[in-house]
Every structure is written in structure tokens, then in C-alpha cells.
């Protein structure tokens, strides 16, 4: 099946954003802006490309999701846990945290960022699974004309959980109801021929959304969906939609102008591996510069060094991803080619 480049570009941009927000040297305003659209964009795109309609029964759906999400979730948790036990918890701030060995194991079952201390980014996988399961049930039990009512109900539940149980439910259940909104918007956007939008319209959308983002930025809190700390809930929703429109419009224009940016598309096609392993690679690179090159870790307070760290991590990831895709594709939820 022919891939849609702007979707891969959007995912690639989002995964670079994930890598950026996990470093401390980038400007706070930049991080705050990235957080407004980062996770909602992933769910919007997931909704746009979903093929749930082709998975007739719930049994078929569960089998598909087990291969696509559950197996990678468990495998990457094992990899991160082994790294954490033997290396991660013995260096840096982990030394002072005194986290018991059993704590992350409970976290793997609970699927909540607060418990996944060995691999916080993996919270995203169970949240996506819950979101898509909710959507599967909605699709089976409702008509397209009822989607607006369902979105309203989903937001109401999401807001209620946000104000009462913000990050206490397993598998990021509270976040899933909020992210379901973006997932449904993405699915509904299939009916709009986004790619045929004129350049003038796209430039206008980028200009308007950029102006709105600059206007809202001073009054925004730094929203972290992983821990369901969103600041003003309704303002978060508005600025997330603004950010999604800006990124999607930009990616369509980039596709038209440059046709095929292979590296960005490659990143967008392999977000699961990067999301699951980039913190380990960060730590390995930092360990190399500290123990082998004898450089102070203070260099990572510099924004340019952090940019270099992101680039180095991407370069190291490329052969690893190619190896995984060729020899053990099940690790990232892909089918084994016969």
C-alpha cells in the first residue's frame, strides 16, 4: 500500500518533538508550544489512518492489537527494565530515587506513566490501545451522525476524570477519553480531501494558527499528557487543535515542495522504536562522552549539544531500526514477511 508522505512527515516531526521535550536545554517556551500539539497530533494521525472498519469482530480486533501494540509494549518494557536494573538506576538522578526493583514491574501491568519509572514514554502504548478500543466499540454501536454527541460525551468524561482522577487510573484511562476526541477528529477528517487544499489556504491556515499560538502561549501551562497535567483543560483542547492544523498544513506544503524527504519519512514510519528506545540511547551517548571522552555532563546544558545529541540518536537508531524491521519485525508490531 502506497504511504501518504505528509502523514509520515507529521509523525516524523512529532517523534523529533518527543526527543526534544525529554531534554532540558531547549527553551521553555519552545517546549511548552511543542507539548500543546505533540501527543494530540499522534492520536489525530492514528485516527486518520485507522483501518478498524476492516476488523470485523472483536476477536479479530484483539488479535490485531495484540500483534501491533501489546507484544511491542511488553518486549520494549523488558528491554528497558533490564537496562534500568543493571545500568539506569545506578547513575544520575535514579541513584537518589531509591526505587524498588518490583516497582516498574507493577508499572508494566498498570500501564501508567507514574509507575513506568524505567521507561516513562511507554505509557503511550496502552493509552493508544484503550483509545482505539473505545473507538472500535463506538464505531460498532453508533452511526457517523452520532459522532458529535459521542465527542461531547467523551470530552465530558475526560474533563470529569481530569478533575477527579487525573493520573490514577490504569493504562492511562483518564487520558484516553481526552485523546479519543483527537482520534475521532482524525477519523472524521478522512471525509475531507485534505491533500487537495490549495497552497493559499494552507499558507493562510499556517499564518492564522501561528498567530493564535503566539497569542495563547503566555497564558498556557506546560501540558504533559503522560501525567495528565494539562493546565486549563478547555484551553489545552483549543491550542492542541490549533497546533495540529499548523503542523498538518506545513507537512502537506513540505510534501508538495520537496516531494520526498526520506529521513523524515523514515522517522515517521518507525516512531514506535524511537519512542521506546531513545532514552536508552541518550544515556549511552552521555555515558560515552563522560567515561570515554572525559567530558563533563554540564555540556548537555547547551542547546547546540542537545541538538547534536538528538541527531546522533537518530543516526544510531537508523541501522538498529533497519535490523529490527528485517529480522524481528514483531518487536515493533509488524508482520513477519514470508
Spell out the blueprint of helices and strands.
Blueprint: H1 5-21, H2 28-49, H3 58-86, H4 94-97, H5 102-110, H6 124-141, H7 147-164, H8 173-188, H9 199-216, H10 233-258, H11 262-269, H12 271-292, H13 303-327
Helix pairs in contact: 1-2, 1-10, 1-11, 1-12, 2-8, 2-10, 3-6, 3-12, 6-8, 7-8, 9-10, 12-13
Number of helices: 13
SSE order, one letter for each helix or strand: HHHHHHHHHHHHH
Rg computed from alpha carbons, rounded to a whole number of angstroms = 20 Å
Round the mean pLDDT to the nearest integer and report it. 92
How many strands appear in the DSSP assignment? Answer: 0
Point out poorly predicted stretches: none
State the end-to-end distance: 17 Å
- Please state the structural category: mainly alpha
Biggest β-sheet strands, sense, barrel: none
Large-scale geometry? globular
Percent strand equals under 5%
Amount of helix: 55-70%
Counting structural domains, the number is: 1
